[in-house]
Amino acid sequence: MEKEELWQAVLAQIQLNISSANFATWFKNTSILFCKEGQVLVSVPNSFAKEWLENKYGKTIFKILYNLDKEIKEVKYAIGKSEQKAQKASYCPPSEAGQLEFEEFQVNKETNLNPKYTFEKFIVGPFNELAHAASWAVSKKPGLVYNPLFIYGGVGLGKTHLLQSIGNAVLKDFPQKKVKYISAEKFIAGVVSSIKNQSMESFKIKYREIDLLILDDVQFLAGKEKTQEEFFHTFNALYEKNKQIVLSSDRPPKAIPALAERLRSRFEGGMTGDIGYPDYETRVAILKAKSQEKEISFSEDVLDYIANNIQKNIRELEGALNRLVAYQKINNQKPDIDLAKALLKNLFLSPNKTINPKKIIQAVVEFYDLKEKDIISSSRKKEIVKPRQVAMYLLREEMKSSYPFIGRRLGGKDHTTAIHACEKITREMEKNETLGDEISLIKQRIYSA
Ligand code: ADP
Ligand code: MG
Question: Atom of ligand 1 at shortest distance to CA of 317?
């Protein structure tokens, strides 16, 4: 059989077994490049499709091919359209060839810093100028200028980026300093488990050796009395030694409910800087910078359309852009303004009103070609664990569901399982661009359902 015929036969069978949306997503622009001596090399348009064909459909594809031609022993996948390129690719191990495309960002386990968050990548405009200037000053003279530095502002406006930039800059200029970034939620969990394991002493010691302590999202300390007390002592110990403390919150200290007065006055005792909503020019500048990073340029009217429709959240601005980037990767076609409008329309219609947990779970299982009963089961299989974690992550991100609710909704799991899942996916997305693309596509389905 000719290789074209062979692949057509494979596609025909696959098409019978998966949804047309999945078929279009994963099998478009695929072909067999060569087939000899039992080896088949399949060409795929991008690393995204490669991973999926290898991991998710690999076995099926092999079975079908083997049934058509019993000589076939191995199927490999390569990115690229020309035979030359693909043959070259076939000489290096497939997984490596695919990964070279991604920029890898590794969160440091000791400091919890992600090197991708730097001042260089932080766009400054009138809305965040002060917060930026104060952060910059602190990074140049930790412990000596503003202590503590307290940054506040709404979600998705760059607090974490700024805080992490301080950490990265300090480590660069003062490599001997001990830096630690931690979210207040994690800090709370640390206190709780230290109490449970009776290891409070070592917990205390660990925090008191730090030169720069960054605590993100301190609004979560609300009502956590034991943690507040612990943090109060840590704060004082560091402060007295001129160690730098940086805090963030979604609101100013006085608006955090159930926060002990002594802690509130500590928070207010240094410099507070807020981040407001970005103006139009900065929104466009951010979109341009982010598309440049991804080496894709969109036309002015497309950027203008996004910037006009998302005004209060930089993460959403990036999300919209990523949707267009994912589209362009899969279809090898840059969306023009009309297509961009169609692709983004659902994102701009106040999404919270139109979605519910059922829709989210439905979109996830369809995307991964599973059934709802699979992900609410207690299976530990990799093909099921990952989609389950993605569903948990999306319930949290898109609906702000509570962890106990998420656990229950996915088959009576514990809330710690939900927390772990959300953290895992967030971490994975930092270093694995494919996962981010998958999640973009799933969101696209959630909002267009
Ligand atoms: P927050 O912690 O306030 O919720 P983040 O710091 O997580 O927000 O920011 C959300 C996303 O937007 C991140 O990907 C971040 O890199 C990006 N971002 C926010 N502000 C800026 C900025 N001024 N310049 C470039 N990117 C930004
Ligand atoms: Mg944050």
Answer: 12
Is the pTM value of this prediction over 0.85? no
CA-proximal residue: ligand 1, atom 19 (nearest): 158
Query: What tokens were used for 365?
Result: 């299982």
List of E strands, 81-193: 149-153, 179-183
Q: What share of the chain is helix, strand, coil (3-state, %, to 5)?
A: 60, 10, 30
Ligand 1 proximity of 160 Cβ (cutoff 6 Å) = yes
Q: What is the CA radius of gyration of the chain?
A: 25
Q: Indicate whether residue 157 lines ligand 1 (CB < 6 A).
A: yes
- Ligand 1 pocket test, pick from 114, 314, 426 with the greatest ligand atom count within 8 Å of Cβ, gives 314
Instruction: Give the three-state DSSP class for 202.
Output: helix
User: Reduced to 3 states, what is the DSSP secondary structure of residue 246?
Assistant: strand
Query: What's the pLDDT tens digit per position in 47-94?
Result: 778 888 888 889 889 998 988 888 899 999 988 754 443 333 333 333
Q: Which domains does the chain have, with CATH numbers?
A: 3-94 (3.30.300.180), 119-275 (3.40.50.300), 280-353 (1.10.8.60), 357-448 (1.10.1750.10)
Query: Which numbered atom of ligand 1 lies nearest the CA of 153?
Result: 3
Distance CA 254, CA 269 (A): 12
For residue range 267-321, list pLDDT tens digits in order. 999 999 999 999 999 999 999 999 998 888 899 999 999 999 998 899 999 989 9
Measure 13 CA to ligand 1 centroid, in angstroms.
Answer: 45
Beta strands 31-36; 179-183: pairing state? unpaired
What type of residue sits at position 104?
E
Record the tokens describing residue 416, joined without a space: 């710690």
The token pair at 258 is 């159930």
Identify the helix (H) or strand (E) that includes residue 236.
helix 225-240
Please report the sign of the dihedral spanned by the C-alpha atoms of residue 92, residue 98, residue 103, residue 109.
negative
Q: What is the DSSP string of 54-72?
A: HHTSHHHHHHHHHHH-TT-
Q: Which residues, at least 6 apart from 157, have a Cβ–Cβ distance to it below 8 Å?
A: 128, 275, 276, 277, 278, 312, 313, 314
Q: Which run of H or of E encompasses 274?
A: strand 271-275
Omega of the bond leading into 404 within 30 degrees of 0 (cis): no
* Residue 213, H or E segment: strand 212-216
Check: CB of residue 253 under 8 Å from CB of residue 268: yes
